[in-house]
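Our collaborator T.R. sent over the components below with a one-line note: 'Predict the complex.' Nothing else. No constraints on interfaces, no templates requested, no preferences about which chain binds where. So this is a plain run: every listed entity goes in together, and whatever single assembly comes back becomes the starting point for the next discussion.
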Amino acid sequence: MSEEKKPVEPASNTAKPASEAAKPTKEAAKPTKEAAKPTKEAAKPAKKSWSNPALRAMGIPKISLPSRNWMIFWSVLATIGGGIYYDRHQQKKIREKYTEQVKVLGEEVYTSNRIPRKVTVFIAPPPDAFLEESLKHFRRYVKPLLNAAAIDFDVYTEGRQGEIRSQIADRIREIRRKALEDHKKKEEDARAEAYSKSWTKFFKEDVPNVFKRAKEEEPEVLVDRHDLYSPTNVLGLYKIFEPLQPIRDDETDVETVGGIICIGRGAYKEYVSGVQEGLLGPLDKPEEKIEEVKIESVEGSEESSETKQEVEIDDFGLKDEGDKPKQDPVPQPYIKQKDYQSAVLAPELDMSTVIRDSNNVPVMFEQPLYVYPIPKLVGISNWPRKIYRFFTRRDIAEDVTSETLAIVYGKSRPFEYKDNFLAKEEELNWPKKWVERGRKKESEWVQEVEIDNRIADRLRVFEQTK
Amino acid sequence: MFGLGGAPQVTSQQKIQAAEAELDMVTGMFNSLVEQCHAKCINRSYAEGDVTKQEALCLDRCVSKYFETNVQVGENMQKLGQSGSFMGRQ
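Returned assembly:
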């Protein structure tokens, strides 16, 4: 004890002259404070500290607790830092737990002619925010599992409202157009065949040809190189080996094929309206709509300037504005939601069977879907919740990652009415101003999801059954 | 290649040289592709004689990415060559 106290005195002795040296200047400046100072110094207790002659000899000063303020600073820092670290650590553990679980799927021995299952991911930014937010959600909680289970994926993102919808609709229309062409071609072939077998052809062409052939030879016809041979014919390799015919995992089992993942309620809405537009809408862009718009703008010419300004406000945050060239506007839907009921369901396609594309993989709307809400909060009143969520992200990680298992294992069930409200909880947190603006613009994001029964019958939803 | 310097008269000798250069380039590209995708995708412990699903998927993606990049780089080089600003030539 005596040793402990000793070093205090020299320290306080050295401290005093310093304060005394400082005093005269302060006395000159503020004589009123002089009275308060001595009492304060006397009240200050000697700092508790500990030292050792050996340590002192090494040049290590006395060890003591930091002052009150420093203690507050360090403890706050340690709490926040520790909270973040612990949360991260737990997230990592959760991720590892699930990736370990699905890793077995990726370790299957694979022959080189097989192509693994592929899911399609649609990512839309949350309202008034950057795309990065949704991408992060995908990257953190969904992608690790897909990678571990060796599931291929295609990511489609959008920077403006309606891009996903118009793309999906385009793709479905493309499928329909192709089906129409195939159908026409088949009919023509059948007609040609019937003609070649018929008596009319025999008398009209075959009989005269017999006499003609002796006289003239057939003229030389130029054929496109691509019709004669393909690059695989030229490669000597395929003279020895049969070229590989890839087998897709998606072809085999209709129940677990592919999958559609929508990140965000908005992406889901766009997906659904895209599919309906593609299947129920006309194949070509309707012309009347443009006239309608024109008439409207003539009527409300005063309003037009206002509406123009509103249009320029973006739905989402955009990263690099400024010198970017102006993009074409997103095409309007070919069919309105209210017309769905009366529209004919894709007459070109045989809807009694599963529709497949050229790779023999069932097309988009035949694949099961899943929707993730984006946990995004806005506004000052939400800050406490935001902070709480920031420190308990492991809960989100656990929820989202365990939900992803259903996709990985391909467990799905038929679409039900309640699935109209998939990820609906996200809408509660959408900024009100943004929603209002959307209503004015008749944005599809603020409309309710309505799925035509004929299409809803075809859809499937991923769900883990226990 | 890369659209650099269009020769006005091409003899058969030059044609053969060009073909050789082309072949060299293709072979070089193929070799570096195999090397890189092997380094990236194949598990070095070689526990399995065959490729696993994970490795197969990785290889598929690696190769397609490589080709895509190659095409894009080629296109850009061609553009540079045409504009004549390649390697500081103005």
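Summary for T.R.: The helical segments of chain B are 12-41, 53-83.
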